[in-house]
Every structure is written in C-alpha cells, then in structure tokens.
Amino acid sequence: ERLNVGGEERELYRIGQEFRGIVAKSWMDRNGEIWREESPLGLVLVRENKNVALHKNWNPAKMVDLIALTAVPVNQEIQNPRAVQYLRAKLHLPTMSGLKIEGERQTRSGNEVVIRKEAFPPPTPEAKPLKAEERIKALEATPFIQSDDPQIKRQAEAIVEGAKDAAEKVGRIVAWVFREVEKRPVVSIPSAVEVLRQKVGDCNEHAVLFTALARAVGIPAHMQAGIIYQEGKFYYHAWAQVYLGTWVAVDPLLNQIPADATHIRLVEGDLDKQLDIVRTIGRLKVEVLEVH
C-alpha cells in the first residue's frame, strides 16, 4: 500500500493482527522497518526523525499525556512503592464480575483487597504440589506463549544452565529478560517468539517472554495484569507469577522477585483474559487504607 509518512510517499506492506475482535495494524517496508502503527485503543504511532518528533506540530497548550489519560486516581501518595510489603485498599468499581482479584497473595472482602508480598524463596514447609490439571495449564504452550518453540527452549536452557534449584532459575530468567529486552512502548499483540527475536517491548512483552522461558524449563507460570502504583497514581501494568511450592508474583520489567505489594492483580492468563481489564479503564478508583 502507498502511504504518505512525514510528507514522503512510501510503498509499504500493511499487516493486520486480529485477536478476539481486537485489531492492530502496522505498515512495514521491505527491510522490516515499521513506519506506522495503529493500536486497538485508537493510538497512532508514526516513524519520524528525532527533531520532527520533538518539535514539529506541537502546541504546548494542546499537549496531552496519553498515559495519564488511563491512570487510576488514588486518595494518597505512597512513599517508596517498590519496597511496599503490605497494602490494604478499597477498589471503587461498579462491578468486579469476571476479574480475578482474590487468590494467592491477594485476599478480598467486598470491595476491600489486601496484598501481601511473598517471601523469596518461599519457606519449604509451605510447599504444596499443584493439582495435575493446574500444573498442565501452567506449563502448556499457547499461541502467544510458545514455550515449546525450539528458540525459546534453547534460550531458556542457556539462561538456567548450572542453576541449583527452581528459585535460582526464576531469578536468572527475570534478570535476563530485564537486561536483554529494551524498554520501549509497542502496539503489536505480544508473542514470546517475536519478543525473543526483537528484544523490544513494554510490560506485556517482558511478561509474555518471561512466562514462556519459565515454562520451557518446567516452571509453572502465568501472566497477570492489573495496576501498579507509580508517582502519585496507579497505572495499568502486566507481570507474571511462578509456582515454587507456592505462587510468587514476579515483575521482569522492574527486575522484582517478588513483585512489590502495590501490584494489584485484576486478571490472570493469556491475552484473551487480559481483554477483560479494558472495561475497568476510566471507571476504577483506589482508596488506600493501610500501607507499609
């Protein structure tokens, strides 16, 4: 398709990705360079040189912080959020139907939720084997978490080579994903194989690659999504969870094991489950009751 980008007409391939009715579009040249992307939420990204991107057509009076538009308001500031061990808060939301707010480190009573950061590695006496069907589900390869792909398996085995136990393997995988994946927003539907090849992405890309690598070496893992506190508000975010005798939340984007207690899970599972979080955008508010 011929497309005008930055005042210059280019011949580009138009690529569409569709998943459960959610469509993302990209325009790519013959060298694989992306010139335009349209996200399912209506955002458009256009390739420009740095000077044009920073200065052309910007009116300071009309500038909008796009991330702030989806931020979740909160009643008070949380000091040093990455060190938070315990959080008790009320989630003001019209309905919590379809969300996974309760379970593992999160407990819920009505619209009040308590998050307790886990110990790492978990105490041995708490170890409980997973039920067979739960273990299978937490290790299976899926269309986007391709834990059985040869590239994923080779990389995972190289990362954990010589590790003495599952906890050390998890630590190595988290550190590798944190170090190797460039932290940059993208609008494509994340796929572990593509993230491994491109090594670029935001929280979803970090989480999907971590989950695939963990499953590839026999560690049960899930993707999780919800909100996380940062600089005065809660923001939508994705991370992961692994089973080490008990479930432990980890955040490869932040290099956290376990993830701090300002991570409030709303959904769990593959990308089809994460679509359920969209209906909370613009409707959710958080009231912090206790934090330490």
Give a brief rundown of this model:
The chain is of the alpha+beta class and 292 residues long.
Q: Categorize the overall geometry.
A: globular
Rounded mean pLDDT is 91
State the separation between the terminal residues, measured CA to CA: 55 Å
SS-based class: alpha+beta
| Helical coverage, percent range | 10-25%
Give unreliable regions as ranges: none
Overall radius of gyration: 20 Å
The major beta sheet can be summarized as: 4 strands, antiparallel
Strand line-up across the major sheet: 3-4-5-6
| Element pattern in H and E | EEEEEEHHEEEHHHEHEHEEEEHE
Strand content: 25-35%
Count of alpha/pi helices: 8
Counting DSSP E segments of at least 2 residues, the number of strands comes to 16
Q: Which key terms come to mind for this protein?
A:
globular, 4-stranded antiparallel β-sheet, 16 strands, 292 residues, alpha+beta
Descriptive overview:
With 292 residues, the chain is of the alpha+beta class. It has 8 helices and 16 strands. The protein has helices spanning 50-55, 66-69, 132-139, 150-160, 166-180, 192-198, 203-216, 271-274; strands spanning 2-5, 8-11, 13-19, 22-28, 34-38, 44-46, 86-92, 106-109, 112-116, 182-183, 200-201, 221-230, 233-243, 247-250, 264-268, 285-291. The strands form 5 sheets. Strands 3-4-5-6 form a 4-stranded antiparallel sheet, with no helix packed on it. The chain has a 4-stranded antiparallel sheet with strand order 8-9-7-16, with no helix packed on it. Strand 8 (106-109) and strand 9 (112-116) form a beta hairpin. Helix 4 (150-160) crosses helix 7, helix 5 runs antiparallel to helix 7 and helix 6 (192-198) packs across helix 7. The longest helix is centred in the middle third of the chain and has 15 residues, at 166-180. The protein is globular and about 60 Å long. The N and C termini lie far apart (55 Å). The mean pLDDT is 91.
